[in-house]
Design a protein that fits this description.
Layout (H helix, E strand, L loop, with lengths): L2 H27 L2 H22 L5 H18 L5 H14 L5 H22 L6 H11 L5 H8 L3 H17 L12 H20 L3 E2 L5 H17 L4 H14 L25 H16 L6 H14 L8 H14 L3 H15 L1 H11 L10 H12 L3 H14 L1 E2 H16 L11
Parallel strand pairs: 1-2
Length: about 425
Amino acid sequence: MTASETHAAIEAVIRMESARLIAGLARYTNDVGLAEELAQDAVVAALQQWPESGVPRNSGAWLMTVAKRRAVDLFRRNRELERKYAQIGRALEAEGDSITPDFDRAFSDEIDDDLLRLVFTACHPVLAVQARVALTLRLLGGLTTAEIARAYLVPEPTIAQRIVRAKNTLAKAQVPFEVPGSEERPARLSSVLEVIYLIFNEGYSATAGDDWMRPELCEDAVRLGRILAQLTPAEPEVHGLVALMEIQASRVRARAGPSGEPILLLDQDRSRWDRLLINRGLAGLSRAEELGGARGPYALQAAIAACHARAFRPEDTDWAGIAGLYGVLAEVMPSPVVELNRAVAVSMASGPQAGLDLVDVLAAEPSLRGYHLLPSVRGDLLMKLGRPDEARAEFERAAALTSNAQERDLSARRARSAQADSGPPGRPQSC
């Protein structure tokens, strides 16, 4: 193995261990920022020593031991933290200087609880949503600041400042490094799920930039969701979210053409959908329903995605069933965007005029005023009703409202098609 291959292998091991290392250190120090600094010190030590000595059998335990020794050194120099030093020192002395079987067992026994604490801390409501996303990707996703910045098309210093401020906010608010109690837990879990799904959606349909999708963000979100499902196996909405993401992610290979142009749902080659991901998603949805979560917002969206996944041909899609599920979702989670999606399903089940009637009611909704999919859907329905001039104006408005280059080009092409009144029938803006 060459030096560069060795270095790449070491970096891969470190990335896999990063979240668990930070989680364990945060429990010891009760300070997420300090935990990450100690973890980085351990990583530097590994990069210096492992090329010569080889990757240890229990790399996570090795990194934890080095990091905790650095913590002891730090606390020894700070008299105000003498009590914490003594606590960590006693624990380290009990573990001994070498990596023992007892340490391995303790490391394994504690790690799930530590990871769950880190998840709830990184997604704490005291932080702004953007800060929660950045901190989650940094601490749990193992992404560097530069990688997060590239994914979100934001300058690296902006992401760095966002992460630093998030850590400072947690420290200033004295957020405890703990799993919330039963009364607070539902709201806190909702925040965690929101962050993970925001990460997924940014990868699935990028809000800005030249790319229609950023699949690596989808992969990060699915991985985080699966970790959370392992840590909270009795939470139906966690399984519902993972099922939703897996079923949607199954379409990624079919959603873009050779030049990255969007391919809408009804035009996709369904043989390119990932059946393994679909089957995993369907199993997760069943698990959510078995746990009594069939009416959870994520489980309902997963059920809608499942209707598409089960249809091997577009004409086999159960649009009436999808419209009914959107109706239930609108009751559980009222939202103009949900109503817009319901209008698309109704148009497919009952005709374009029925869908247009619902869309026109939403036209006055303030929250949809700058939402590019509203005129896009309306333009599609107008085309189906034989009103190309009105459709062209809607597609042009959709193109002006989006910040994504691929979506803008798609709407512009549809506007030209409407103007010529010679293009193929419109499709609902769903993918």
